[in-house]
Structures are given as structure tokens and as C-alpha cells.
């Protein structure tokens, strides 16, 4: 029979062993567990104050749109032209600003530029001769609904700023133009010399956004927040995926800003980040439910997913930049050739500038 002293000693050893085991587990678990699993508890929620700020902004944009074109005299023009608003969503420097500046050159009355720059990153302001509107921005995080909020803020600010913004092209800091500005403008809006104030009020402009109902990971994406969470607002048959980047007509941009019901579902944090890309789900799902015939169901931004890593597309580097690559990236099976392309690394700028006039902007 064990003595009481031996029993106490055994309990002490067991307790010490358990304590050391728990300590070592706590210490080394972050190194043992996959990074993606750690991130599941780090996804930032949509904060209430941000939500309230956005709601006020969206309501202001909706009211601004109802005032029609009363700002004509304020804009100082008697023959206004419809414009394209270019919306840059970024969390790093706009290294391709010189290329975009050359793209915009000579078309001052036909476009506007708006930038949502993540305030948690210190960005260098590009030295543009064009006017770029850096809008009040909030923090963004990949694979979270913050990217939806950022895109909606860009749309709202563009609508408030200029009533003649008729199309809204969302691009990233890694995007480049594949055509001249005149080519893109004419493709979307026709000859600017023939545009009139009446043209701005036509409701039939189509939006160019990828909307896919067949994807091998569609179900995983649908249940990324948990089984049944999207119901009853969004059934699996209604759920869609697509590209993060789009070109929206003004009527659809306004619908997005007025929308509340689906947003209540998409702002819920995911529990499976491997399948969680809200910015690729919200816009395609909502516009497919609201006006499927008014959307192209294809994107105008070329992305190469061959050899993608951790959800990121293939990135092009300087040695790959050539006229042949640019011509290849333009090719499309849709109505138009691609207007934009991503993803390009910063070291591509010099090579792109060298062929800009002779290749990119020569349609």
C-alpha cells in the first residue's frame, strides 16, 4: 500500500506535468497550427460606428441622385458629358499612377478619379497632374465584408461629387489599362461628341460584372458563415460568385447603396476563411437577384488564375511585360475585349511605360 507521502508526491508530479503540458501547448500552438486557422479568430467585424457613418453617406448619395442634374451650373458647363468614375481600392502605394495619368491625359471633362486608401497603411500620395479624390476611408481586410463597405463608399462619394458620373469602374492598385481612354469611353458610352444631357437620363445602360452560378466551390462559399446562416434572404440557388472588380451603371450603383437586407447576411464574419470572399459574392448575388438581364455576367478586368497562390491570382513581373502579353490579355470571348488587367508587380511600371503609347493606347 502506498504511503500518504507517496500519494501526495504522485499528485504533485501529475499536476506539474499537466501544467507544463498546457504551458507548452499555449507557447507552441501558434507555430504548429496552420496560419489560415489562426486567422479565423482574427477577422475584423464591421464596427457599429463605421456602419452608422456608411448609412448616413449612402442616404446622402441617394438624395443627391434625386436632385438630378441641378449641379450643372455649379460644374460650370452648359453642355455636360456623361463621365466614367474610376474607383481605386487600395492598401498600398498607387505605383502605376504614371501609367494611369497618361491614360487619362486629354480627357479632363470625361472622367473622375476616387481613391479609398486603407488608413492603417502609410501611403505615398502619387504626383498626379489629374485631380484624384482621396475619400474618407476605413480599414479594410482581405476575406472580410470591409471590402464591400469600401466599394460602396467609393460609389457613394462618386455619386455625391458629380451627377454626371454614369459608369463606375472599380480597380485595384495592381490593375493597369489595356486600351486607350477613348476606346473604353466609346465602348461604354458612345462618341463623346454626340453625348447630351438627355443621354445621361437613359435607364438602360448595362453593368459589366461577373455573375457565376456554377463554381466547384460554390457550396463551401455559401456556407462559409455556417449552415443555414444565409437563409431566408438568400437560398443556395440564388447565391452567386464573381470577380471583385466591376463596371457598374449608375442605376445599379444606386441599388447597391439602397440595399440593406442582403448586407445583414454578408457582414456576418465567416468561420471558414478558406471559402470566404464576401466582395466576390455580395455584388454578383444582389445584382443577379435584382436585375440579371441588366448585367453582362462577365467582367471587363482580365485576371489569370493559373498558378494562383492562397487565393491570389498570377502576378506578372517586369521580364514578362511585352506587346505580345498585352495583346493576349485583351482577348475575350465576350462582347468587348478586356479593358483592364491585374495583377502586376511594381517592377513592371518602367516596362509598361516604355510600350504605353505604341501598344497599350494604340487600339
How do the strands and helices of this protein lay out in sequence?
Blueprint: H1 4-32, H2 35-39, H3 48-66, H4 72-75, E1 83-90, H5 97-104, E2 111-117, E3 132-134, H6 146-161, E4 165-172, E5 176-177, H7 181-189, H8 197-200, E6 207-210, H9 218-222, E7 247-249, H10 250-258, H11 263-266, H12 282-290, E8 295-297, E9 301-303, H13 323-330, E10 340-342, H14 349-360
Parallel strand pairs: 1-2, 1-4, 2-3, 6-8, 9-10
Antiparallel strand pairs: 4-7, 5-10
Written overview of the protein:
- It is a single-pass type II membrane protein.
- Keywords: Glycoprotein, Glycosyltransferase, Membrane, Transferase, Transmembrane, Transmembrane helix.
- InterPro entries: BC10-like (IPR044174), Glyco_trans_14 (IPR003406).
- One of its GO terms (molecular function) is glycosyltransferase activity.
- The chain is built from 14 helices and 10 strands.
- It has 363 residues and is of the alpha/beta class.
- The protein has a domain of 249 residues: Alpha-Beta Complex (Spore Coat Polysaccharide Biosynthesis Protein SpsA, Chain A), CATH 3.90.550.
- Strands 3-2-1-4-7 form a 5-stranded mixed beta sheet. The chain has a 3-stranded mixed beta sheet with strand order 5-10-9.
- Strand 9, helix 13 and strand 10 form a beta-alpha-beta unit.
- About 7% of the residues have low confidence.
Amino acid at each position: 500500500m502506498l504511503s500518504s507521502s507517496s500519494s501526495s508526491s504522485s499528485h504533485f508530479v501529475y499536476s506539474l506535468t499537466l501544467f507544463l503540458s498546457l504551458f507548452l501547448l499555449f507557447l507552441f500552438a501558434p507555430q504548429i497550427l496552420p496560419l489560415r486557422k489562426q486567422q479565423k479568430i482574427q477577422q475584423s467585424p464591421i464596427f457599429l460606428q463605421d456602419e452608422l457613418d456608411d448609412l448616413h453617406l449612402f442616404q446622402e448619395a441617394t438624395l443627391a441622385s434625386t436632385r438630378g442634374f441641378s449641379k450643372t451650373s455649379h460644374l460650370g458647363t452648359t453642355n455636360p458629358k456623361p463621365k466614367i468614375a474610376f474607383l481605386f481600392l487600395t492598401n498600398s502605394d498607387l505605383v502605376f499612377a504614371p501609367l494611369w495619368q497618361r491614360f487619362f491625359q486629354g480627357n479632363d471633362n470625361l472622367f473622375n478619379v476616387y481613391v479609398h486608401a486603407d488608413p492603417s497603411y502609410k501611403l505615398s500620395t502619387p504626383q498626379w497632374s489629374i485631380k484624384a479624390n482621396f475619400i474618407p476611408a476605413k480599414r479594410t481586410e482581405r476575406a472580410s465584408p470591409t471590402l464591400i463597405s469600401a466599394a460602396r463608399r467609393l460609389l457613394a462619394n462618386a455619386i455625391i461629387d458629380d451627377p454626371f458620373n454614369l459608369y463606375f469602374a472599380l480597380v485595384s492598385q495592381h490593375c493597369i489599362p489595356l486600351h486607350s481612354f477613348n476606346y473604353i469611353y466609346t465602348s461604354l458610352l458612345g462618341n463623346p461628341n454626340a453625348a447630351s444631357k438627355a443621354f445621361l437620363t437613359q435607364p438602360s445602360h448595362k453593368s459589366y460584372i461577373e455573375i457565376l452560378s456554377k463554381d466547384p466551390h460554390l457550396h463551401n462559399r455559401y456556407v462559409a458563415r455556417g449552415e443555414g446562416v444565409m437563409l431566408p434572404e438568400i437560398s443556395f440557388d440564388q447565391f452567386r460568385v464573381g470577380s471583385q472588380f466591376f463596371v457598374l451603371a449608375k442605376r445599379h450603383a444606386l441599388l447597391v447603396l439602397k440595399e440593406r437586407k442582403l448586407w445583414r447576411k454578408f457582414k456576418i464574419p465567416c468561420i471558414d476563411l478558406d471559402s470566404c470572399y464576401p466582395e466576390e459574392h455580395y455584388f454578383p448575388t444582389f445584382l443577379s437577384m435584382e436585375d440579371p438581364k441588366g448585367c453582362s455576367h462577365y467582367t471587363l478586368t482580365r485576371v489569370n488564375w493559373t498558378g494562383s497562390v492562397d487565393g491570389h491570382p498570377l502576378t506578372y513581373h517586369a521580364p514578362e511585360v511585352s506587346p505580345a502579353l498585352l495583346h493576349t490579355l485583351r482577348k475575350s470571348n465576350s462582347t468587348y475585349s478586356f479593358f483592364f488587367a491585374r495583377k502586376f508587380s511594381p517592377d513592371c511600371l518602367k516596362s509598361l511605360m516604355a510600350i504605353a503609347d505604341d501598344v497599350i493606347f494604340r487600339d
